[in-house]
């Protein structure tokens, strides 16, 4: 059985917006996290595409990736993910082909098949186009071809994009993308930071049906793990109340801006809401380094993933950076 030293540690940066800070502050902090991740030896940092959410500043994902790539040197940077129904495949290929041309061997494209937003915003993004999630497999194949050498007489060529061979991942919170990633021989990442219920099933489906490809000769799977690591279990539980309040806001259709931690959540949520938040965060690792190390070892033993990708919703930006420092200490201990 592998140990934590044997697997990759990465970060999914959701560019959280604090209730007392500007969006510019959030974007600058996202870069600070990326620079610290590079310094600490994280494998990759991904940004997620979300729209019409006041607490997430990474909506223009490719633009923010360019800012982070320009101010780091070795870290792999990508999307976790681009919500493909919102975009024409050619545009995505050109954007990521441009980034890969400017920053060779550092750019990755993770693709999701959900819109990443509500129905009204989805219509605003698509401007009348009838793209649906059902077209996802065909759109993925189209993007993969744009990144290859053009075929003879290929009428549409991504420029930049062609011959860049940008690594493509499929992301999912259900079984659909697991099956498609297996069929296409692509790496697969499960969104267990918000939808952990089908994690076990999805990983098994992916591994059992994986077909070797030009991209991978064996399955490669990562899972996203929410974390709040602090000096003590008590401090971590206190800091985690910011994350709980954020999920509560999501469930109630309220602001997603990060709120300051509170001494207790009692009175802020109902028993049913607490149960829903607990289910949302079923994979979360919250506590001291010792506690979180034990929790991560259990996750690794159960799911045997190749990589953990960590999220973190800590209000204090210094404590948030410390969270990622402590995680890397855990890996190296």
Structure description:
It is a single chain. The chain is of the alpha/beta class and 333 residues long. The protein has 11 helices and 9 strands. An 8-stranded parallel β-barrel has the order 1-2-3-4-5-6-7-9, surrounded by 8 helices. α1 links the parallel β1 and β2 (44-47). α1 (23-40) runs parallel beside α11. The longest helix has 20 residues, at 233-252. The model has no long low-confidence stretch (mean pLDDT 95).
Low-confidence stretches: none
Contiguous helical run count: 11
Strand order of the largest sheet: 1-2-3-4-5-6-7-9
Mean pLDDT: 95
Instruction: Report the oligomer.
Output: single chain
Number of E strands? 9
Question: Whole-Å distance between the termini?
Answer: 17 Å
Shape: globular
Order of helices and strands: EHEHEHEHHEHEHEHHEHEH
Q: What structural category do the secondary elements indicate?
A: alpha/beta
List the main descriptive attributes of the protein structure presented here:
333 residues, alpha/beta, 15% strand
Secondary-structure blueprint:
Layout (H helix, E strand, L loop, with lengths): L7 E6 L9 H18 L3 E4 L13 H10 L5 E8 L5 H14 L4 E6 L6 H8 L9 H11 L21 E5 L3 H9 L3 E3 L8 H11 L11 E10 L2 H20 L18 H10 L4 E4 H15 L3 E5 L5 H16 L1
Parallel strand pairs: 1-2, 1-9, 2-3, 3-4, 4-5, 5-6, 6-7, 7-8, 7-9
Q: What's the short version?
A:
With 333 residues, this protein is α/β, with parallel strands linked by helices. It is 43% helix and 15% strand. Helix 6 (176-184) links the parallel strand 5 (168-172) and strand 6 (188-190).
């Amino acid at each position: 059985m592998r140990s934590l030293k044997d697997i990759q540690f990465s970060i999914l940066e959701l560019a959280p917006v604090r209730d007392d800070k500007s969006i510019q502050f959030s974007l600058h902090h996202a870069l600070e996290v990326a620079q610290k991740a590079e310094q600490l030896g994280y494998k990759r940092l991904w940004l997620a595409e979300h729209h019409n959410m006041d607490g997430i500043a990474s909506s223009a994902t490719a633009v923010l990736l360019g800012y982070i790539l320009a101010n780091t040197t070795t870290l792999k940077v990508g999307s976790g993910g681009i919500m493909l129904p919102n975009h024409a495949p050619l545009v995505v290929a050109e954007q990521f082909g441009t980034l890969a041309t400017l920053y060779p061997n550092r750019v990755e494209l993770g693709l999701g098949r959900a819109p990443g937003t509500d129905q009204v915003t989805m219509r605003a993004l698509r401007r009348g186009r009838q793209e649906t999630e059902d077209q996802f497999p065909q759109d993925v194949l189209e993007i993969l071809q744009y990144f290859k050498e053009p075929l003879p007489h290929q009428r549409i060529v991504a420029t930049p994009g062609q011959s860049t061979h940008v690594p493509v991942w499929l992301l999912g919170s259900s079984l659909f993308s697991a099956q498609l990633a297996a069929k296409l021989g692509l790496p697969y990442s499960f969104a267990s930071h918000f939808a952990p219920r089908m994690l076990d099933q999805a990983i098994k489906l992916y591994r059992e049906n994986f077909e070797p490809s030009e991209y991978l000769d064996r399955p490669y799977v990562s899972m996203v793990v929410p974390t709040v690591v602090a000096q003590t279990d008590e401090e971590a539980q206190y800091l985690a109340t910011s994350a709980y309040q954020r999920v509560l806001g999501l469930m109630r259709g309220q602001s997603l801006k990060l709120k300051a931690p509170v001494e207790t959540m009692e009175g802020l949520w109902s028993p049913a809401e607490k149960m829903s938040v607990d289910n949302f965060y079923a994979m979360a690792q919250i506590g001291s380094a010792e506690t979180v190390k034990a929790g991560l070892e259990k996750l690794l033993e159960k799911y045997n993933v190749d990589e953990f990708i960590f999220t973190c919703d800590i209000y204090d930006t210094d404590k948030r950076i410390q969270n990622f420092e402590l995680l890397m200490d855990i890996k190296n201990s």
